[in-house]
Amino acid sequence: MERKKILKTCKNGHEFYKSSDCPTCLICEDERKPQDNFLSLLVAPARRALENNGITTSVQLSKYTEKEILNFHGIGKTTIPKLKKLLSENKLTFKK
């Protein structure tokens, strides 16, 4: 059954449709997306999950195990290969 999309307005006045209770404004998320660091290569839920846990650089990411990262709300199994690639490009790995 398809969920009905509801028109919402964020605190910045953007109007957007969502079929869930998630209050995240897609327009605000797109505007705040980093342009030049590894977080810019991730989808918004994964990016927010890392940011909410104080991870904004690949060095900070390398201090966590894969299992720890997977436990963050917003990180899925498809994100891990992307993160491994980003770490590898910086000659880093997840903590063992």
Explain what this protein looks like in three dimensions.
This protein is mainly alpha-helical and about 100 residues long. The chain folds into 2 domains: about 1-30, no CATH class; about 35-95, 5' to 3' exonuclease, C-terminal subdomain (DNA polymerase, domain 1). The chain contains 5 helices and 2 strands, in the order ββααααα. The protein has a two-stranded antiparallel sheet. A hairpin with a 5-residue loop joins strand 1 (about 5-10) and strand 2 (about 15-20). The longest helix is centred in the last third of the chain and has 11 residues, at about 80-90. It is elongated and about 45 Å long. The termini are far apart. The mean pLDDT is about 85.
Short summary:
The protein is 38% helix and 8% strand. By secondary structure, it is mostly helical. The protein has 2 domains: 1-32, no CATH class; 34-96, DNA polymerase, domain 1, CATH 1.10.150.
Provide keyphrases for this structure.
mainly alpha
Q: What's the mean pLDDT score?
A: 86
SS-based class: mainly alpha
| CA-based shape | elongated
Query: What would the CATH topology of the largest domain be?
Result: DNA polymerase, domain 1
What's the CATH architecture of the largest domain?
Orthogonal Bundle
Fraction of residues in helix = 25-40%
CATH level 1 class label of the largest domain: Mainly Alpha
> Biggest sheet: strands side by side, in what order?
1-2
User: Strand content of the residues, in percent?
Assistant: 5-15%
Helix tally? 5
- Element pattern in H and E: EEHHHHH
Per-chain topology:
Elements: E1 6-9, E2 15-18, H1 26-32, H2 44-52, H3 58-61, H4 66-70, H5 79-89
Antiparallel strand pairs: 1-2
